[in-house]
């Protein structure tokens, strides 16, 4: 009974219920998404040295593109993974949400601060049952501050900073 409960085929993830999900791409990634979540919730997932390497290894199988030298910290939340492109040298800090339903591209050398939210879908105020999917782009060397929100369809220009960075006065 326990083995059935831990089998990714028997696990229900929210993303599997979205109407626009690509069933074929999602089916191949669902066990890895579940593994990503369970790894991060385990004590070994808190091991910084192992965690950075392991998430990048999984990311190469989850994401549409995964660059070299990427650092993904603990607790990063994904929706599909297959709509996510991450360039070389990107740093994604702890607790970030990458809601890639409509596609997210993160350029080389970008930094996304802790607990930031990056969306690629939006809703009409009077209809929360219908999502409009629009790609979101974070340019090369862009910085997204901790707890900042990047809404769907926005393009953060190369080198641009979004949010507050108290240490450097921006």
SSE blueprint and pairings:
Layout: H1 2-6, H2 23-41, H3 48-62, E1 65-66, E2 71-72, E3 77-78, E4 84-86, E5 91-92, E6 97-99, E7 104-106, E8 111-112, E9 117-119, E10 121-124, E11 127-133, E12 136-138, E13 143-144, E14 149-150, E15 155-156, E16 161-162
Helix pairs in contact: 2-3
List keywords for this structure.
170 residues, alpha/beta, five-stranded parallel beta sheet, 3 helices, globular
What would your notes on this structure say?
The protein is of the alpha/beta class. It has helices spanning 2-6, 23-41, 48-62, and strands at residues 65-66, 71-72, 77-78, 84-86, 91-92, 97-99, 104-106, 111-112, 117-119, 121-124, 127-133, 136-138, 143-144, 149-150, 155-156, 161-162. The strands form four sheets. The chain has a five-stranded parallel β-sheet, with helices on one face. Strand 10 and strand 11 form a beta hairpin. Helix 2 runs antiparallel to helix 3. The termini are far apart. The model has no long low-confidence stretch (mean pLDDT 91).
